[in-house]
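Hi Y.,

Following your request, here is the sequence exactly as I used it, all 164 residues.
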Amino acid sequence: MVQTRFDKENTPCDDCIITATCLFVCVLDIARCCVDVPHELDFLADCLVMSVQGCMHAQQQIEINEVKKHGWHGMPPMIMQHLPPSQQEMMQKVGMHGAAAHPSMIGAPQWHPWHSDGWCKLRPGMGGGGPPVQVVCGNCRQVFGAPQQGMVVMCPFCQTPNNC
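Below is the corresponding structure, written out as tokens. Let me know if you'd prefer a different format.
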């Protein structure tokens, strides 16, 4: 999903590592049909698969952190047209199909009452889906912008959720 939704691609090195891992596992399975394969090779295959999966998950997290840091400028139209209609409708309702999303809004966790509340004030004349606001983080007291009131925004400085 990270690759399709945020338009990310495997590098040739990624493809080579994944293919080599799959081939090693397949060769072991085929060899098992003809000869007795030592258990050590099975353990080696398992270690290889788990190592590659761990690297792939780490890379996904790096990509997600980059999107959080720099914002997301919408799903490419060629990907949007291939989504199921219900997902296309959802993306259009939240306005994420072409407009830039504030980095603090990507992946913001649900607000919980034990998180510090910041305070918000209106900034007139900014336009958008609602009146834009300035947020003072309830944790670090840094000031940052949010698109409108009535939402939870992550502080870009300390990652604390703030309920506006």
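The first strand starts at residue 119 and ends at 122.

Thanks again,
Q.
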